Amino acid sequence: MNSAKRLLKISEMVHKVVFVLGGPGAGKGTQCQKIVDNFGFKHLSAGDLLREERQKPGSEYGELIETYIREGKIVPVDITCSLLERAMRESGTDKFLIDGFPRNQDNLDGWNRRVAEKVKLLFVLFFDCSLEICTDRCLSRGAAGSGRSDDNLESLKKRFNTYVNETKPIIEHYEQINLVKRVDASKTQEDVFEDVKAAFVDMESAGDN
Ligand code: UDP
Ligand code: MG
């Protein structure tokens, strides 16, 4: 193999990541599914990975995770990062949507320490949505039987506080380095996805992927 080909081979192996952030109920999971169907990414929801870990019989962290989730607090990054790294390793693919992470400074520091150098962060997809609409969506999701222990008004207030005080500054950090693509997430699922599509098509035509 000549050196140009070898370089290409190496760059092909680098895992590519899009972080997906936004308030609770902004539509991250819903839109991620559509991105998977249309753009061939693997969806890794940090919240889902934590809920799965919590369910495992005998999990060392089950109780801790449940308490953090109900209280709307952010689980210590080493737990979340280990789950993400394992899921990436086991996926057999190389393009990931990492949904709901990094959502505070501890998450960001842990990611930078453990993973950042090994992957290419393509951009941060930010679903911007008012707290009123987010609340309505989470409460309807709870009423429709989401089974989530945090889709109730009391947990939601805590989740929003965490979002405003801890996650927003992370989004601002990425805005400062021009990595954020913002989408108005208050519209219908279909309309939001039109804007999401535009963000991914832009990336593809910029040759970033
Ligand atoms: N969570 C966490 N670290 C993460 C992602 C999620 O600690 O990196 C916890 C946190 O308590 C959060 C909950 O899991 O409130 C639910 O997160 P999820 O992303 O599933 O909720 P969403 O924001 O999509 O409604
Ligand atoms: Mg979610």
Entry summary:
Keywords: ATP-binding, Cytoplasm, Kinase, Nucleotide-binding, Nucleus, Pyrimidine biosynthesis, Transferase. The protein is an alpha/beta fold and 209 residues long.
Secondary structure layout:
Blueprint lengths: L2 H11 L1 E8 L5 H12 L2 E4 H10 L6 H9 L6 H15 L3 E5 L5 H10 L4 E10 L2 H13 L9 H24 L3 E5 L4 H17 L4
Helix pairs in contact: 2-9, 3-4, 3-5, 5-6
Enzyme class: transferase
Subcellular location: Cytoplasm; Nucleus
Function: Catalyzes the phosphorylation of pyrimidine nucleoside monophosphates at the expense of ATP. Plays an important role in de novo pyrimidine nucleotide biosynthesis. Has preference for UMP and CMP as phosphate acceptors.
Total helical segments: 9
> How much β-strand is present in the residues?
15-25%
Shape: globular
Number of domains: 1
**How would you write the strand order of the largest sheet?**
2-3-1-4-5
CATH homolog superfamily: P-loop containing nucleotide triphosphate hydrolases
Query: What is the string of helix and strand elements?
Result: HEHEHHHEHEHHEH
CATH architecture annotation: 3-Layer(aba) Sandwich
Largest sheet, described in full?
5 strands, parallel
Average pLDDT across residues? 93
- The CATH first-level class comes to Alpha Beta
Bound molecules: uridine-5'-diphosphate, magnesium ion
Through-space gap between termini: 23 Å
Rg measurement, Å: 17 Å
Q: Residue ranges: pLDDT <50 for 5 or more in a row?
A: none
Class per helix and strand makeup: alpha/beta
> Got a strand count?
5
CATH topology (level 3) name:
Rossmann fold
Helix content: 55-70%
Subunit structure: Monomer.
Subcellular location: Cytoplasm; Nucleus
EC number: 2.7.4.14
Cofactor: Mg(2+)
